[in-house]
Amino acid sequence: MGAGARWRHPLVWAWAATVLVFMYVPALCLLLASLTSSRYFIFPITKWGVAWWEKTFDSLEIHALFRTSISVALCLTVVAVVIAFCGALAFARYQWRGRTLFQRLVLLPIFFPQSVLGLALLLWFSALGLDLSWRTAVFAHLVWIAPVVTLVIAIQVYSFDPALEEAAFDLGASRWQVFREVTLPVLFPGVFSGALFAFLLSWGNFPLSLFSTGADTTIPEYLYAKMVAGYTPGVPVLGTVSTVGAAVLLLVGYLLIRLGRRSRRDDAVERT
Amino acid sequence: MAAGSRAPGPRFALPVLGLLLVGFAAPLLAVIGYSFMPERTFGLWQEPTLDNYASVFSGTSYISFLWSLALASATVTVLALVCYPIAYGLARVFGRWSPLITLLFTIPLFVSENVRLYGWVLFFIKGGVLLGTLKSVFGIEIESWLFTRGIILLGMVYVYLPFMLFPMTLGVAMVPHETSEAAADLGASRWQVFREVELPLSMPGIVIGFLLTFVLAVGAIVEAKVLGGQQIIPITHDIEIAFTYAQNWPLGAALAVLLMVVVGVLVIGVLRRFDLDAVLGRR
């Protein structure tokens, strides 16, 4: 392997780097387009400026959009994490009849075109006579995001050693104590990444929001409407904000999980 | 409590199952129900009819259907070739850099896809980043590639890349190091190791990646709209038109049912063969 790997590995690195650049070309273009002070985007930019950033952040309309998007994403995160935590235990922790069937059922909404799911939910809400608002959007997001979060937490649950819980029970801990002192702390990295995923997936979701928000508008819906008709450099401004926001949240989350893991390892070393 | 603690599995499964029942099974049944309603009606309780299916099969929707399937197949093929080396790198080569690189591939997933596709519009548009640079730096002027079929494919490859990459990485990570080394020690060439050992053993992850990207790509709609102009009309566009401009919910529902059948047969057919514990838990 040695000789071949010497030239193969740099190639793999180079290819991954190329594709990563490809992944960030649009983000870069959005950033450039937001930094112009003219109304239309012509490259190379002649009049640089942050006027559109100020205008966007001062706009009351944009504030309302942010509120809607954040309300949806926060409510969704709380509900999705609770449901998915239970689901992940059923998915990966316990052996029970029907578990394999359950695992496949959980995957179905993920392996399903979201635009069709959004329409199906629209029909369903209308058959039930529900008024569409950001609350129905929370539910629509939940159908797709709760299974994703279940998978994210389940991956953590797979590495969970049930003997830890049993040992705590043997030492006389109550069910609640075991959950609070053993199960939750051990699974916390999974729950945390699950929550992060839930929030961000909801924040960026378009196909489900489109059919379920009614008169309320989330940021992706607003951006889509503006792209189709009525472009202003406010579009790339908001696009850049959501890209950078997602990146910062994820990087901070990743660092927190790593720090948490390290401090827990240090604790364990100190105790022994 | 005694009965409950004997069966914690089903009890913990309940919330998710309840959600799937109310939020997934019931809406799909509603779609099926609507597809049998008379044209341009908005209630669910009329005399059922097969008219919508008749008009689907006599109309031109099958062209959109074929386009969607063709585009999805092309997307999967390109992604398989693009992603395999990276998946291999993430599982084998990048070592401690792997988590960070994975993270960098994850970030774009959380930005709404229409926004990211708009980034490509700004890149390719006349006077945009690519053509503007070519013109001002090199003095070359070419036609914009925007609103061509190739660009739609590029957009789809771009949007669905992580959905191929991550399952594939899980698959490649399932191949034990020792197996490839043993094969090489026994005199297998690099290509033989790949074809006879690494590829078959990582198949579960690869097939899940294929399935996921295919299904999502068949349901894609924004790529063709934002990047493609009207060069390709995917089936999802027909469905949306029926629901919005045409105000013909039953017809849209019939189209959606056909799409659901294709997706459902594929997904259920493939997933039932897999041991998900092995793919996700690496046990």
Question: What oligomeric assembly is this protein in?
Answer: heterodimer
Count the domains of chain B: 1
Q: Name the CATH superfamily classification of chain B.
A: MetI-like
Straight-line distance between termini of chain B: 32 Å
Name the structural class of chain B: mainly alpha
**Global morphology of chain B:** globular
Class by alpha and beta content of chain A: mainly alpha
Write the CATH architecture name of chain B.
Orthogonal Bundle
Q: Which topology of chain B does CATH recognise?
A: MetI-like fold
Number of helices of chain B: 14
Largest interface: A-B, 101 and 101 residues
Any idea what the CATH superfamily of chain A is called? MetI-like
What is the molecular shape of chain A?
globular
Roughly how much helix do the residues of chain B carry, as a percent range? Answer: over 70%
Query: What is the CA-atom radius of gyration of chain B, in angstroms?
Result: 23 Å
Element-by-element helix/strand order of chain A = HHHHHHHHHHH
CATH topology of chain A: MetI-like fold
Named at the architecture level, the CATH assignment of chain A is Orthogonal Bundle
